[in-house]
Each structure stands twice: as C-alpha cells, then as structure tokens.
Amino acid sequence: MEFNQLNIKPELIQIFDELGFEELTPIQRDAIPIALTGDDLIGQAQTGTGKTAAFGIPMLEHLDLSNRTIQGLIIAPTRELAIQVQEELYRYGKLLKAKVYSVYGGTPIGKQIERLKRYNPQIIVGTPGRILDLINRNVLDFSQLKQLVLDEADEMLNMGFIEDIRAIIRATPDSRQTMLFSATMPSEIKALAEEFLRHPQHVQIEAQQMTADLIDQYFTKCSDGEKFDILTRFIDIHNPKQAIIFCRTKKRVDEVGRGLALRGYNAEMIHGDITQQKRTSVIKELKDGVLEILVATDVAARGLDISGVTHVYNYDIPQDPESYVHRIGRTGRAGKEGMSITFVTHNEMAYLKTIEQLTRIQMMPMRPPTSKEAQHGQIQQLIDRMNLTLQSEEADALRNTAKMLLEHYEVNDLVTALLTEVISDSTQIDVVISPQKPLPKRKSKRHNSHSRQRDSKSKHHQQRRKHTSSNRSERIKPENKQYDTKDIRKKKYSKRSKHERKNKEEQSRYSGKRSRNFKETSKRSSTKRNSQVRKNNKGFKIRQRQR
Prior knowledge:
Layout: H1 10-19, H2 26-36, E1 41-44, H3 51-61, E2 72-75, H4 79-92, E3 100-103, H5 109-119, E4 123-126, H6 128-136, E5 147-150, H7 153-158, H8 162-170, E6 177-182, H9 187-196, E7 201-204, H10 208-214, E8 215-221, H11 227-238, E9 243-246, H12 250-262, E10 267-270, H13 276-288, E11 293-296, E12 311-314, H14 321-328, E13 338-344, H15 349-359, E14 364-365, H16 371-391, H17 399-408, H18 411-422, H19 445-476, H20 485-495, H21 498-511, E15 513-514, H22 518-522, E16 531-535, E17 541-545
Parallel strand pairs: 1-6, 1-7, 2-4, 2-5, 3-4, 5-6, 8-13, 8-14, 9-11, 9-12, 10-11, 12-13
Antiparallel strand pairs: 15-16, 16-17
Helix pairs in contact: 2-3, 3-4, 6-8, 11-16, 14-15
C-alpha cells in the first residue's frame, strides 16, 4: 500500500512524496486506517518500523488548523525521542503550517512556559515529568484535546513513569482518542490499556520481521577485563560506518567513551548526566554522519533514529532481555542490513539464553579477534582510502613529491616507513575500565525445580537419619538399673543382633578403663593374635579379638 492511496489531506500526500516516502511500513499499513476512524488503538511493533508516521498522520489529518488550542498530546520516555518526534511531525505538517512544540526536562521551565504562551502550539510532545509539572502550574490546557499518544509505553514503565502517565491521562477529556504504542506488552501496560482505552483495536507486527532478516546477531564470550581490547579489535576489523556501543551504567559509558577517544577513535558519549546542549550536538553530529561511534546507556536506545548505524555493540548484556530488542533496533533500519555483537561473561550465559527465547533467534558465537587480525583490518582500511584518493584529483598535487621520495629511498623502505607512521598499535595506550558488579545469577525453571526436589530429598533423608539414630541410641543406652552379670550376658547374646553387638563393643572399647589383664595379654607371643580388654561402666569384662 502506498501513501497516495490513503484518504488524507493533499498537503500530507504532497509532503510525503517530496520526502521520498512511497510504500507504507507494516505498522503504518495496519494502524493508520484504524486511527483515521477515531477508534482507540494498541500498536505493538519494534523500534525503527515507522511508528511516528503511524500516529502522526492521523493526528495531522484530524487537526483543526483554525483552532489554536492544544488538540494533540504525545508522551515520550526520553528527551531525545521527544525532540525526534517533534521534528518528524514538523516536517510532516510543514505544508499545513501545524504548530508542534516539545517540552522536556533539563532546560529552564520558565523559557518553555514563555514560548508556550507565545506560540500557542496545537500539538505537544514531551516527557511525563515535564508535562505533569506544566499541568500542575496550569500552563497546559487539555480541555480541547482530541488525541493522546503514548509512545514507547513499555520503556516509560521501566523508567518508573507509570503513575505520572496516569495523572496526565486523568487531566485529559474522556472524549479523546487514545493510541498506545509499545515494542513489548508487559502486564502493567495491558492493565493501563484496560483502564484508559475504550474497546481498542490491537495491531501487532511480529519481531521476526525486523530482526531475523536484516540484523546478524552474534555473541562473543570473554571476561569483563578483556572487553575493551576486544571491542577496539572488532572496530578495526569491521570498520563500521556508524556504530553505537551500549553500556549498563553511566560510569562505564564515560570510561569506554574516553578510552576510545584516547586510542584515536571518533567517539562521543551520552547518558542522563550529560547536559541537554551536549546531547543535542552529539545526536546532530551522528545524524549528519560526522560522528562515527556513540557510547550510550539504555535510555538513549529509545530516542535515536539514525538510519546510517551499521553496527551495535552490547558492551554489557542488558539485565532486562526486552532492552536487547530496543538496542539492536538502532541498526537494520529503513530496510538496511546491520550487525549486533553482545559481549557475554561466563556467569551471564543464562541471560543470553533468555534473550534468545524472547527473540526466537539463536545467536551465533564469534571468536574474539587477535591483534594481528586487527592490524590486517587497519591495513585494509588504508588500502580502501588510498584507492579512493587515487581515483580523485586530490593526489595529483603530491605526485612530484612522491617522485622525489622515490629517487632517494627504496620503494620497500619508503612504504614501510609510511605504514609505520599511519598504522599504530592502539593497545599500547593503556585504558583502565573499572570492574562492574556482575549480574545476579539467573537460574532456569527446570534448575529451580530440580533444586527443590534435591532439597526435599535431603531434608527427608536428614529426618530419617535423625529418627534412626535416636531409636538406635535408645536401644543401646542402658537403663539406670542394676543387672546381674548372667542376665546381661543372656540379654546381650540372645536378643541383640550382630550389628548392635558391634556398636556396643565399639562404645565399650573407648568408654571403659583398661583392664587389669591387659598387661598379661600384651606379653603373648607375636604369632598369636593381640587382644584388648575393656571394662564397661557396669563392672563386667568383655574380651575382644582383633582380626
């Protein structure tokens, strides 16, 4: 299905034609017709599948351009995603002259309030915290709101925004149309949909359509201390056009980003503590193709839409397996191929299996490259650059210099010296990455059931041994009563089993005192068997033979 087949305003069809959009993506094909009817909608699809247009086109279509009140509200989990959605809607509604404004934290709220009063936007895109703050300050008026969109709802749930979202929704009229988009559908999101959506229609695009065909997924097994050197070797070999490296903590993002910069890579980093001005400039450099490597936390995974990203490196495996889907969704976008490599330690293999079960794809193992292989990758990159330079006219100005150098040096010596200057072993620059607390060990259900069975059996055996030993001790323990010697012997040899006699003899061997006859028995010849005599507490003697 193509854009010009949609029953929408001519201005929208024209702008999509100018942008070069022809065919609708699966989520757009299934969601837009439903949203145009005004019904509530749940759209489940992975990142990078065109969800912004899926809810942006119906919102712009229903927009009353003569009304200067807020008619559309889009809630996004991060500042990056809010800015990105605002920019996309501004492009889509350019010919309609629709007013779209974004609000988010990290910037002075006073300036945002001033601009909201000045511009009177018709569509608001923002993060939950800042939207709720503006509602409490009576700045945002949603009395005329027609459409509400919850974008990346599962990520907002993971970030703890679910109560803020409920408060925002309660501030909107009941007559609104609500659209909820999410890559995954946990139980909390289902409960939210049941609470605020009216008979929603469900559109689901399978994850395999995105990940199976376009993204090659690998894992490499290594220790935490080996990760950084292996990462740089992979970069040297793969020579990615643009790559994103995901780390679990802000501290690790800082250390990996600075380490890559020290070794000469074109790398920057973003996370929650980076200023908004810096984040905006870094993302712009990445979109413009100036920046090659970006190191980020999971928060940035939901706010980046860069079609040129060819590789994703999961420096730390995510604890939440659903975050893995959003990470690798940064590559393989717009029908392009991509590659993801996940670094896994020995204790994290259970998390890898969980991710494979979620994506229904088995990752292929990849051997960590050696230093020699990384050097070969650098040489190949140099050869590719040399071919491009020779094909252009830029090298003509240096041909005379090259002739002069060849007159004074041998060709082999000259090339070797130039290679030494161009290619260097970056591992000589020592980079220290602080060790990170490992993820808790994850046990499978089967393992847990077996453990419970073993614990139950062990407890049963312990109780049984305790019961047996107590009964045995009761049988062996003599009563506080005086017996005649003949009665004791008769009871001993007639009623007790051989095993019980042996136990009694062992006790009597170490509990009694040495017999007066011991010296006489020890003086016997060595050819005869030695004997020991022990005297028990009741005063009779027992003679034992050692075999």
